[in-house]
Structures are given as C-alpha cells and as structure tokens.
Amino acid sequence: MRTYREIFALPEFRVLFLARCLTMAAISIGSLALGATTYASTGSPLLTALAMFGGPLITLLGSATVLSASDSMGPRRASTIMPIAYAAAFLLQALPHLSWGWRFAILAIPFLAGSATSGSTMRLLHDIVPPDGFVLGRATLNIAVGVMQVAGYGLGGFLLAWCTPATLFPLAAVAALAAALSIRLGVRERPGVASGKGLMTRTREVNRALLGSPVTRPLYLAMWVPNGLIVGCEALFVPHAGQAGAGYLFAAAAAGMLLGDVVMGRFVPPRHRDRTIEPLRMLLALPYLGFAFSPPLAVALVLAFIASAGYAASLPLQERLVAATGPQTRGQAFGLCSTGLMVGQAVGAAVGGALATAVGATHAIVALAATSAAITAALTPALQRSAPTRGSTVVTR
Prior knowledge:
397 residues, mainly alpha, Growth Hormone, Chain: A, 19 helices, 75% helix, 0% strand, cell membrane
C-alpha cells in the first residue's frame, strides 16, 4: 500500500483521519488560548510553557499503573475517552476569572482520562490497515496533525489579534466533541485482548520488558528525549515572539512537520526509510541554533519550518517498534511511546521555561537545540540494535 487513494479507500481510516483532524484542531486552538491566558495573567515563561505542554506529566501515573487498558479495552471506546475529556476541560477553561492554579487543575482532566488508553488509536490503525500500509497510515495521521496545527495555531493567532483568549475555548470544545462522535459512529468495535493478569500487574510487566530491552529502549529514548527538547524550544515561542508572532511560529513548525511526514510516508521507498533516521534527527535541532543571531520573525519562521521536518524520523523509528513487538502488547507499546513523547515534551517545556526565566527565551532556545543535537549523536550507536539487518527479539508478554 503506497498511495493515498488506496488508504483513503478504507472507510474506517477516513473516519480515523477525520477524528484526528478534529482532535488536533481542538488541542491547537485550546492550548494556544491557555498559553496566552497564562502569560497575560502571570508574565511567567515557565508557567506559560507548562500550561501549553506540561499536561502530559500527569500521564505518568496512568502509564505506570493502567496503560495495558490500551490492549484490554475495545479500541473504539478507548479512542473516544480523551476527546470527550478535552471537550469538558475546554468548556471549564472558558469560565471567567479562573486563577492559574485552577486552570492547571482543569488541564489535568484529559490527561488523566486518557493516560490509560494512549495507545488505542495506533492499535486501531494497525487493525484497520494491512501490514504494508502501517507507515503510510501513520504518516497520513501525522499529516492530519500537521495540517490542523497549521490551521489551529494560524486561526488562533489571527483570532487573538482581535478577541480575548477565552473566546477560543468553546470553539476547541466543539471540535473535540465532534471527534469523539465521529469515532463512535464511524468505526466498528474490536474485542480487547484477554489476559489472566490484573491490569496493574500486566502494565508493570510489559513496561518493564519494553524499557528493559536493549532493542526497544534506545528506540524510545531516541523518540522521547531529543524531540522533547525541541518542543521545549517551541514552548518559548510566546515569550520570544509575542502572542500573534507565536501563532505564526507554531503554524510554521507544524507545516514543516507536515512536509516531512508527506515526503516520508508517500515518496521515500520502504527500503530507504531507515537511512533517513540520522540525518532527520539532526535536522530537528540544528536550525534552532540560528536563533542565537536573533533573526527577524520571517527568518525565524523559515528556521522553525526546516527544523520540524526532522520529526519525520519518528516514522521509521516507529516502524522498527512494530517489528520489535507482538500483537498482544502493541497497544501498550505504542501507548508507552505516546506517553513518553508527551512527557518528554512536557519536561522539555518545563526546562525551557525555567531556563528562559534565567537567561531569556532566545538563549534558552539555542541551549535546548544544542543539547538535543548532542543527545541525538550519543544515542546513535545503541539504535543499531534495532536496525532491520539485525535480528531482534519480539516483546510479546
């Protein structure tokens, strides 16, 4: 399966794509509104970064205890939990005169609700598409993320120039509810994976196997740590460029990610995908070093666009993860991957915010990018264990 016509011929994939578009539009608009609200009321780069990217830290609790629900629960039901929770949270964020403490408490709602089911969408994708269509399907869902981040952040930046951030929250809530409804009506349910072990016991055992494996552990680290530091750069767009400028920077970064995913999923032949991992992982960090010269907004947009194309390295890395895991644990394997990505982003945002408080947003962006590039280089040897030419043990607990 190599073409968009083939993959969009699958009715359930079309629904999954629509739901991803609606969910990402909701998250983009809502998080930009929350970041702008927090910065306006506190003036703190740290709190602003945490408001936009800190929520995933909450998923650590669920990932350590109940993440195997991604396999044991029906994937359709599991996939509707987080968008419904986002809708509720955004409606609460629209209430006037909330303190930043209450806003952070509300922010926890969708991440607590979804911490047990973060791998369900990838499990559903694996059930919907044939094996040779997984990378194209994953890349196409990433395209939905990129397109709707461009649209969401761009629309949000435009609206923030004319109205208050609070007016964006109801719009985000409607989009999230529409996402949940489309999955409920357009995707058939699949059975969960039966297990004789308790949810918490199975979660701990599979997590231990995945993180203890010399094959899968480097894959996780390569997707979590360097990417998280670059998201830390993005979390500083508001203090770096202001509300309106930040919206355009977010849109440029999302457009770059979109381009990378389109090229990787549609045009790079399967036999060549693996060779792109190292160059793309370095591309993700190096353009942000140009922020050391305090470029004008137009140049900064180009740098953010180019850098974000490097996120496409995650696609062949995830293809390696599919090869290294069995169907009994694949939901949890991708749930753990998703949780680590989000937590890495949250930690990167927190580190970036703290660093920006001390040295300023521009210098913090440069420091985070340099650290990301160094860690990418350090992880390269360990990634050879999961290369397609190496034999690897499949984690099937």
